[in-house]
Amino acid sequence: xxxSYSGRCLLSSYLAGRDANRGACTHPCRWKYSVVEETRPxxxxxxxxxxxxxxxxxxxxxxxxxxxxxxxxxGIDSLKVEGRMKTELYVATCxxxxxxxxxxxxxxxxLYEERLPLYREMIADCTTxxxxxxxxxxxxxxxxxxxxxxxxxxxAVYLGTVSGTDxxxxxxxxxxxxxxxxxxxxxxxxxxxxxxxxxxxxxxEGNGMExxxxxxxxLHLKLDAAxxxxxxxxxxx
Length: 237
Prior knowledge:
Layout: H1 10-16, E1 34-36, E2 44-46, E3 61-62, H2 68-73, H3 88-107, H4 109-114, H5 116-124, E4 131-132, E5 156-165, E6 171-174, E7 184-188, E8 193-202, E9 208-209, E10 218-223, E11 232-236
Parallel strand pairs: 3-4
Antiparallel strand pairs: 1-2, 5-6, 5-11, 6-10, 7-8, 7-11, 8-9, 8-10
């Protein structure tokens, strides 16, 4: 269970009856909490440091990409990337980065060390809550928690995944977040990101659009770089 190293996943089963290990987590680690004294039922005393409250179980996100030699040295030969309730962009970014780091380390530990800043930058491109090594090196301290917020830090927004091409050869995307004609976006491929401009946006009827405001809408895009089936699209924020 994740609770051994990073989050507080078992709380979901105890507090809400929903098993985090089966994809039904209620995220109780992100809730605000109050204290009730046993002889004063119904009297809730806030646990807070300021007007926004205090998130007493709110862990930073586990990140071990720069500690892979320790994991490999411990005999670990399979890594699990957290994916439940995450976007395809998050899963793809983490899986791609760890795969690249593991391959580089197997090829040359010196190459892995040289590229550590790149791996960290790639992981930070995800939607995160800053980073910690969790319980891997002992009991987490106060710097491993976030006390004043339960929000994410976003450096990139997921726009959609290319599902195929239409009869004109334009990539087809089921849109996730809004973007505009003329935006500079990134095509995320298995080994690199390619910057491109959104030259035109069309709906299924072939009507031109200035923006894509409706999540889930099927779009046909004209880009100035090639996007293939399975590629993810994202935009810097």
